[in-house]
Amino acid sequence: MACTQKPLIIRKIADEWLELLGMQERADQPFNKLSYGDQRLLLIARAMVKHPPLLILDEPCLGLDDMNRQLVLALIEKICAGKETTVLYVNHHTEDRIKEIGNHLALEKNH
Q1: Which of 45, 64, 74, 87 could, after both became Cys, cross-link 17 (CB 3.0–4.6 A)?
Q2: Three-class SS string for 6-55?
Q3: 0.90 exceeded by the pTM?
Q4: Closest CA to 22 of 36, 7, 41
Q5: Superfamily in which the 5-96 domain is placed by CATH
Q6: pLDDT 10s digits, 34-91
């Protein structure tokens, strides 16, 4: 593949992720002008552009309001459903459990 084609392919994949997120109209907007929730979604999508075999998400919903939390959880569910990327997902809230993740490790607090 020619070097000039690779950036075009990456841009096409990035555009597909923006479309999936419903953010294609904001493709040229500076990252720091986006809401905190949109930034979080874009960071996850950016990681997925290169089709990683492993995606590690450490508290991806931390600091998000309920609406953005639900959007991030839905995106993670979609990534897990794709079966192409293994997701290591760390969180401290059982209500943020991802259905598509079959293996769970629960750590108990020492009193």
Answers
A1: 45
A2: HHHHHHHHHHHHHHHHCCHHHCCCCHHHCCHHHHHHHHHHHHHCCCCCEE
A3: no
A4: 41
A5: P-loop containing nucleotide triphosphate hydrolases (3.40.50.300)
A6: 999 999 999 999 999 989 999 999 999 999 999 999 999 999 999 999 989 999 999 9
Least confident piece of the model among 10-19, 64-73, 100-109? 100-109
Structure tokens that stand for 35 in this block: 């809401």
Q: Of 85, 21, 20, give the one whose Cα is nearest residue 48.
A: 85
Q: What residues contact 10, with CB distance under 8 A and at least 6 apart?
A: 49, 50
Token code pair at residue 107: 């750590």
Cα–Cα distance for residue pair 80/101, rounded to 1 Å: 7
DSSP type of residue 111 = -
Using CA atoms, how far residue 77 sits from 50, 70, 74, in Å, is 18, 10, 5
In this prediction, residue 5 carries a pLDDT of 60
